Amino acid sequence: MFDKSTWIKLPRNVLVGHGVLDQLGEAVEELYLSGRPLLVTSPSPERIAGDRIRDQFGDIDSISLDRASFEAVERVVEYANEIDAGYLIALGGGKPIDIAKMASDHLNCGFVSVPTAASHDGIVSGRSSIPEGDTRHSVAADPPLAVVADTELLAEAPWELTTAGCADIISNYTAVKDWQLAHRLQNVEYSEYAGALAQMTAELLVESADSIKPGLEESAWIVTKALVSSGVAMSIAGSSRPASGAEHLFSHQLDRLAPGRALHGHQVGVGAIMTEYFHSGERGDWRNIRDALSTMGAPTTAEELGIDEATVIEALTTAHTIRDRYTILGNGVSEEAAIEAATITGVL
Ligand SMILES: NC(=O)C1=CN([C@@H]2O[C@H](COP(=O)(O)OP(=O)(O)OC[C@H]3O[C@@H](n4cnc5c(N)ncnc54)[C@H](O)[C@@H]3O)[C@@H](O)[C@H]2O)C=CC1
Ligand SMILES: O=C(CO)COP(=O)(O)O
Ligand SMILES: [Zn+2]
C-alpha cells in the first residue's frame, strides 16, 4: 500500500521589491485576518521602519526585544493575550522574526514577516531557531502568512547584514552535503527536491556574485530572492536540514561561547569553509567556498569574525553536542584535527 504523505506550508503572499513596505496594509488585507496586530520588533528596526507601519495600521501596540529566547517568546505571548491581538507583524532581522514565528504558533494566530535586513534565510521558513542553555532548538512553526521585503529598505541596511545573508546561503553547500551524509549513514529522511533547491540557490547566488555590491539595490533583490528560495527549501523539507548542517552547529556554539561578537551568517560562512574541508579534504571545494565568501565581502577568518583562536577551536570540537543532528562532525573532531582544518583553510 502507498503510505507516503507530505504537508508543505508556504506563505500566501510574498512581496519583494522597491517600496513594497507601503503595500504591507494591502498584503495583510488580502489575508482576511481579524483583530488588531501586535508589532514585534527590535530597537533599530523599530526606529527605521516602525512609523511606516503605523502610517498604514494606525497607532498599533508594539513590543521591542533584542534577544531570541523562550522568555522573549513568552513575553510576546503574554502581551498579545493582554491586548487580544489578532495577528503579529514581525519587523527586523532574524531574531524578532524567529520570536514572532514561535509566539504566533503558541497563540494559534498568523504572522507577517517584514525583514529589515537580508541577513538570514528565516524570513520565509517554517522554523524558529531559539537558543536555550547549552542547546539550540530548531522548532517547527508555521511560516509567515505574508512576507514583505522592501529592497529599498534592505539596501540601506549596513552592508555587513547583506553579506551575512549571502554567507547563510553559501552555507547551503555544506548543509546539503551533511544532510546527504546523514541520509546514507543514519537513514535520515532526505528530500531530493529540497536538497536540489537549496543547492541551486547557493549556485545561483555565487553566479551573481559580480552584481552583489554595496549601494546597489539590485544586490538586495538578488540576495532576498535567494533567502526566500532557501526558506522554501526548508518548508519543503519540513526541517532546516537543507540550510543548516555542521557549519550551523559551529555558529550556534559560537553564539554561546562568544555571544554577540559576529553575525549568524558570517559565522556559518566561516564554519562552511572548515566543514567543507572535512567533507572533501585539502584538495576539495573549501577554496571555492572561501573565494565566494570573500568576493561578496563576507569574513573568511577568525580574525575577521573578531573571535579568538581558542574559541574557534572550542566551538569546532564541541559543535556536535549542541543538537541531535548527524553531520560530518560525527561524534566530534579532536583538537588536533580542528587546529589542522582551521590552519590549512586559513581560518586561523
Ligand atoms: N528560523 C530560521 O530558519 C533561521 C533563523 N535564523 C536566526 O536568525 C538570527 C540571525 O539573524 P540576524 O538578522 O543576523 O540577527 P538580528 O535580528 O539580531 O539582527 C542583527 C542586527 O542587525 C540590526 N538590524 C536589522 N535591520 C537593520 C537595519 N535595516 N539597519 C540597521 N540595523 C539593522 C538588528 O537590530 C541587530 O542588531 C539568528 O538567531 C539565527 O539563528 C537564521 C537563519 C534561519
Ligand atoms: O539558520 C538556519 C538556516 O540558515 C536555521 O537553522 P537552525 O535549525 O540550525 O537554527
Ligand atoms: Zn542560518
Describe this entry's structure for a reader.
By secondary structure, the protein is α/β, with parallel strands linked by helices. The chain folds into two domains: 13-156, Rossmann fold (3-Layer(aba) Sandwich), CATH 3.40.50; 159-344, Dehydroquinate synthase-like, alpha domain. The protein contains 15 helices and eight strands. It has helices at 24-29, 43-57, 70-83, 94-107, 151-156, 159-170, 172-186, 192-207, 217-237, 246-257, 264-280, 286-295, 302-305, 309-318, 335-344; strands at residues 13-17, 36-41, 61-64, 85-92, 110-115, 127-132, 135-140, 146-150. A six-stranded parallel β-sheet has the order 1-8-5-4-2-3, sandwiched between helices. The protein has a two-stranded antiparallel ribbon with strand order 6-7. The N and C termini lie far apart (54 Å). 1,4-dihydronicotinamide adenine dinucleotide (NAI) binds next to helix 2, helix 4, strand 6 and helix 6.
